[in-house]
Design a protein that fits this description.
Elements lengths: L34 E2 L25 H6 L3 E5 L2 E6 L3 H10 L2 E4 L4 E6 L3 H6 L14 E7 L5 E9 L4 E5 L4 H10 L7 E4 L4 E7 L3 H5 L3 E5 L31 E5 L9 E6 L3 E7 L7 E7 L3 H13 L4 E2 L2 H10 L21 H4 L10 H10 L4 E8 L12 E4 L2 E12 L4 E9 L8 E6 L2 E8 L6
Parallel strand pairs: 4-16
Antiparallel strand pairs: 1-2, 2-3, 4-10, 5-8, 5-9, 6-7, 7-8, 10-15, 11-12, 13-14, 14-15, 17-20, 17-22, 18-19, 18-21, 19-20, 21-22
Helix pairs in contact: 2-7
């Protein structure tokens, strides 16, 4: 990684949490400023001279998406595509074929330095020390009391570690990591200004990606000692190019990585270094592509054409959120936050290693497993068909007149033809099949606990 890349300025940012609209809309949404700005076709300008992540709150491909008819929202103060005019059709494609999503609003940090892997292993709940280059894992970042501070998708690159996580938390995560860097050779760097994130999700995602053709090299060239890392600014050390395909490059189809959380680097003659991750986000097949910002528009065009070949299309945040809730997947800042222990959110199988050794918060999590249970757990709910409005985050659940839980997310599921929700419910009342009373501003209604992912 070149020295021109700035170390993250760790300033705090206010976070807005999602609310949900009426059941009649059949969609989960974010209650923030939402405007539809169709300004014509064309690629967005990908600026990399950004002084801090807080200033980079607009999508680099805003004009590109506007040309496709996008309406925009913001997620934790970062601009996102809300939908392209028909969120339900987008959801159907996401669940049945393959969808392209611009997730560049998400946070992206890199860890550099000789001690980066050992250091990170002591900070997160999952086993990082045994990961090899090309592998990754999902983990939680917790404090000494095991309360969550973020969840992280972690990828081991040759010269750095990439962290992908929820928008609006870059400063907080960087501050949390820096707090424990004492004598370690570790640096935290913000790569969001240099690399965007495009995602292909859905059961036909892998099929769509195999239709892609890039100009890729043959044998891997020897490492360049002048480069400190791989996720460098796109203008640094450009790959040779002539007529779109440089010497030593040939047209080749993409082979998506088969193992979840594994990845392959694609050194493309025109676009530069792209990282293709196996990253299912809504319970089906899914892949993320970390792309140099200057190549985002061209790669997005190729991805949209590829998914169209399998019946797919570009999709927005609204469809993704609905599919996430249908899959019963908690989102940090919504279904889990700084008040929650990681085991409360049901992350044991995905994010916690009980054999890796010491890390911040490990003693508390180990005691929970050895000696007892958490006081509350995340559960799925089947809500009444008769409700006029979906519950909001924080609406309460009762049993026998006693408060026993609260809602975190809710949606009307087209897939299940039912109103569903995620909620925390106290241990003595959270058995599958238990019936609770939901109280909202609209009155009371029945809520029944169901398995996750919801199967009504």
């Amino acid at each position: 990684m070149r020295s021109s890349r700035r170390e993250l300025k760790t300033r705090s940012r206010a976070v807005s949490l999602p609310r949900y609209t009426s059941a009649a809309t059949a969609m989960a949404t974010i209650t923030t400023t939402n405007s539809c700005r169709n300004t014509g076709a064309g690629f967005g300008t990908c600026e990399t001279s950004v002084s801090s992540i807080e200033q980079m709150n607009s999508l680099a491909l805003h004009e590109f998406h506007a040309g496709l008819g996008a309406c925009f929202t913001d997620v934790n103060a970062m601009e996102a595509v809300d939908h392209y005019g028909d969120p339900l059709a987008e959801h159907a494609v996401l669940r049945g074929a393959a969808a392209v999503l611009d997730l560049s609003f998400r946070s992206r940090l890199c860890l550099l330095g000789a001690d980066r892997q050992k250091f990170l292993n002591g900070q997160v709940t999952n086993n990082v020390k045994d990961l090899k280059v090309g592998e990754g894992c999902y983990a939680a970042l917790v404090n000494a009391k095991a309360k969550m501070q973020s969840d992280l998708n972690i990828y081991i690159l040759a010269d750095e570690i990439l962290l992908d996580f929820e928008p609006g938390y870059s400063a907080a995560v960087a501050q949390r990591l820096a707090k424990y860097v004492i004598a370690d050779d570790v640096q935290v760097t913000d790569v969001a200004p240099h690399y965007g994130l495009l995602s292909v999700q859905g059961p036909k995602a892998a099929e769509a990606l195999t239709a892609l053709e890039f100009a890729m090299p043959g044998p891997e060239p020897a490492p360049d000692p002048s480069r400190e890392g791989n996720l460098r600014p796109p203008g640094a050390a450009p790959l040779p190019s002539a007529g779109g395909v440089g010497a030593g490059f040939a047209r080749a189809t993409v082979q998506p990585p088969a193992k979840s959380m594994s990845f392959v680097p694609l050194k493309e003659a025109t676009f530069g270094e792209i990282y293709l991750m196996n990253a299912p986000r809504v319970g089906t097949s899914g892949f993320d592509l970390f792309v140099p910002v200057d190549a985002l528009g061209a790669v997005a065009d190729k991805l949209i054409a590829a998914v169209k070949s399998v019946g797919g299309r570009a999709c927005g945040w609204k469809a993704l959120e609905l599919a996430r809730i249908e899959a019963g997947i908690p989102r940090f800042g919504v279904d889990m936050d700084e008040t929650n222990l990681a085991p409360e959110a049901g992350l044991e199988m995905r994010a916690i290693s009980y054999t890796k050794g010491c890390y911040i918060g490990q003693e508390v999590i180990a005691r929970i497993r050895t000696y007892g249970q958490v006081a509350k757990s995340l559960r799925g709910l089947r809500l009444a068909d008769s409700i006029n409005k979906l519950p909001h985050k924080g609406d309460k659940l009762y049993s026998g007149g006693k408060e026993v839980g609260q809602i975190t997310s809710a949606a009307t599921s087209p897939t299940l033809a039912a109103n569903i929700a995620l909620a925390y419910v106290r241990r003595e009342h959270n058995q599958i099949g238990a019936e609770l009373t939901l109280r909202t501003s609209e009155g009371e209604s029945l809520a029944r606990i169901i398995e996750l992912p919801p199967r009504v």
